[in-house]
Design brief:
6 helices
């Protein structure tokens, strides 16, 4: 086990001060919580305390169960596994083959052709600049869509 020995840490005044600060704050919070709970539960009967304990344990158990369910699917596969992107590309290619997508592709080509022809003249560049200033979100959407359908 010579490979796993810890190296000795040097304690500095700054780390000692930070550790003391955190420990003091944790103890203060714990003391406040204990005082509050003592005050609240002082007049509870043993049955009420038992019921509160059962509810607390049930809530913590349910939270743990939900966390485990999110990590492990019912099929046994891990839910947090890496996402494969190859099937997304196949779906995108299948979507491009639809009739509606072909029509949209033709429209986007027409928009791209119009933008290209406008950018060749001074008045067209002025119109494009005004469009960018007045509707920047629309211009970004057009650029993204034309890039997708090229």
């Amino acid at each position: 086990m010579i490979f796993f020995r810890r190296k000795p840490r040097r304690e500095t005044p700054l780390t000692d001060k930070a550790a003391g600060y955190f420990a003091r704050n944790i103890l203060n919070a714990q003391t406040k919580w204990a005082t509050y709970m003592s005050r609240v539960t002082a007049n509870w009967t043993p049955g009420q305390k038992t019921l509160a304990l059962i509810l607390f344990c049930g809530a913590v158990g349910a939270n743990s169960g939900i966390a485990l369910y999110k990590v492990i699917n019912p099929t046994g596969e891990r839910a947090l596994a890496a996402v494969r992107t190859d099937h997304i590309r196949e779906l995108r290619l299948q979507a491009r083959d639809t009739l509606w997508d072909r029509e949209l592709h033709k429209r986007m080509q027409a928009i791209s052709f119009t933008i290209d022809s406008l950018s060749k003249t001074d008045s067209g560049r002025l119109l494009i600049r005004e469009l960018k200033q007045s509707r920047p979100g629309l211009w970004d959407s057009i650029k993204i869509a034309t890039g997708y359908y090229r």
